[in-house]
Amino acid sequence: MKALNNADTDVIIIGAGPAGLCFARALSGIGLRIALIEQLKDEQLSTPTFDGREIAHTQYSVKLLKDLDIWNRINTHAPSALRDAKVLNGSHPFAMTISHRLSGQSELGWLVSNYLIRKAAYESVQAANKAHQDIQLYCGEKVNAVHTDDAGAQVTLGNGIVIKGQLIVAADSRFSETRRAMGIGADMNDFGKTILVCRMTHEVAHQQTAWEWFGYGQTLALLPMNADPATHEHCSSVVVTLPHAEITPLMQMSPDTFGLEIQKRFANRLGKMTLISTRHSYPLVGVYPHRLIAKRFAVVGDAAVGMHPMTAHGFNFGLLGVDNLSNAIRAAHVQGGDIASPHLLAQFEKTHRRATRPLYLATQLISNLYTNDSTPARFLRDAALRVGEVFIPFKRAVAASLSGTK
Question: Looking at the predicted structure, is the pLDDT value of residue 151 above 50?
Answer without folding.
Answer: yes
